[in-house]
């Protein structure tokens, strides 16, 4: 939606700047104004690729009462229902990411029997992690299986369509078993449990990787953590505050802001955050660190 116009421009520009020329972008939007779309397009470097805009504002999208994300976050579940000629391999990215590496190898990545490739969530490492799939036993999913962050997905489109992943995820979200604030992510993990390929953390560098307050050391080696911290292919600003907030302390915030200054939206005015929100974010992080014994 309009709140993510600038982040979208930054995400697309970062892809092109790291070897992504000639790509075909598809942006699913919630009635984004033409003037904002034009500014996003002019933010791409010359010959940076084409953008197909798909207005999803009339689409009925499943939501839950506890879901804290905008309805646009669920548009990914409808990708096989929009009038787009998808290639066999599709890369989905949230718009709060900064690409720092060449993504082209992902188009030739061997998926084996997997439907998608993704990176494990650091907030919810396993299906059975509290807040991931709280009713895993009821829906028949092994709680010991890993749980992925859905902000970065390498999708085998023929398998996605054949397995009706999006439709099944929506059906789950509308059921009494959906229980997460990240309802679409929960639904995708239920539908794809045991059928996704795990990639290294550098492909979806999540905020907890920087302070290890979620137990990244229990999942990755010291070398993997350090490589993902210093040489990420994709930086995902998965937690608040975001780099467009004044109170953001993320190590890559300035890289995001520098790139935002190169877009058609420059100069960028950083958003103010309410003191209550800042306090809540800091308390949440401090409490998590205490729980982990940090």
Structure commentary:
Helices cover 30% and strands 15% of the residues. The chain has ten helices and eight strands. Strands 3-6-5-7 form a four-stranded mixed β-sheet. Strand 1 (23-29), helix 2 (34-41) and strand 2 form a beta-alpha-beta unit. Helix 1 packs parallel to helix 2 and helix 5 crosses helix 6 (183-191).
Backbone shape: globular
> Which sequence of SSEs, written as H and E, runs from N to C?
HEHEEEEHEHHHEHHEHH
- Label the structural class: alpha/beta
Count of alpha/pi helices:
10
Strand composition percent: 5-15%
How would you summarize the topology of this molecule?
Layout: H1 5-17, E1 23-29, H2 34-41, E2 49-55, E3 89-93, E4 97-99, E5 116-120, H3 136-139, E6 148-156, H4 157-162, H5 165-173, H6 183-191, E7 196-199, H7 208-211, H8 222-230, E8 234-236, H9 253-260, H10 275-291
Parallel strand pairs: 1-2, 5-7
Antiparallel strand pairs: 3-6, 4-8, 5-6
